[in-house]
Amino acid sequence: xxxxxxxxxxxxxxxxxxxxxxxxxxxxxxxxxxxxxxxxxxxxxxxxxxxxxxxxxxxxxxxxxxxxxxxxxxxxxxxxxxxxxxxxxxxxxxxxxxxxxxxxxxxxxxxxxxxxxxxxxxxxxxxxxxxxxxxxxxxxxxxxxxxxxxxxxxxxxxxxxxxxxxxxxxxxxxxxxxxxxxxxxxxxxxxxxxxxxxxxxxxxxxxxxxxxxxxxxxxxxxxxxxxxxxxxxxxxxxxxxxxxxxxxxxxxxxxxxxxxxxxxxxxxxxxxxxxxxxxxxxxxxxxxxxxxxxxxxxxxxxxxxxxxxxxxxxxxx
Length: 317
Hints:
Elements: H1 24-31, E1 35-40, H2 42-56, E2 64-69, E3 72-77, E4 82-88, E5 109-111, H3 116-119, E6 127-131, E7 142-145, E8 156-159, H4 161-179, E9 186-190, H5 229-240, E10 247-250, H6 253-257, E11 263-265, H7 276-280, E12 287-291, H8 296-309
Parallel strand pairs: 1-4, 1-6, 5-7, 6-9, 9-10
Antiparallel strand pairs: 2-3, 3-4, 7-8, 11-12
């Protein structure tokens, strides 16, 4: 998978609070008879896979199954009558990037409303974990398709990324308020996962420098890379306005900003073999977006675990 390292694997962790360290058995008991669903992009899928790995060690041998049907992946923990699922929806709203494999598109076209095509898979989940950020950050306008017509090429208006992002998050909040019972379900939103594609941001002036070859985290506690603060503000403002269903924000951005050393770099599974030119200059094809597993997404799941079990202490993280 594109989120795992094939060589030079390292184990990274963040110590949160000793008494609240991730406990796979406790987590599985909490999920007994329930359905947990991750919704978002490949970064959210990395967190999903990380969670499966963290939980798998506590499951009886032969008691699990895994299947993928189109955009939905389903892991079954049979001994606990639980499912942990991932649904591919990188922009949350219906878009031209919804194909689980063929989705490398430069132009973003999303449907303004409704969101029925995706949200029908979200109904009934006991724990929902959303993310959406990277796919908005193309630098181009986002094209918004109005109406419910199946034709994704007409009646289009353009919006800036922040405006379009706000529109879609409001749709998600409205859907939550109308379809989720806060007495039985929990909802979370994971903030932006940083990239480390430009070494100049942390003071490396070498031409083309990026995450490739990095072996240590950034030591400057005040470091902030290219992650859009404006998009994070939109996230906070919209989710805070949820009238009926509380949305717990899992803020992974700052802690991940330091981890220039934890990306898959050139060790991920490649869609195509590197060319001779790329092999001669590894930083030219280094993946500075996705993370090694074990790695940073494990720490994200530590935060998610905290918020699941200690919601009264949300403001501490």
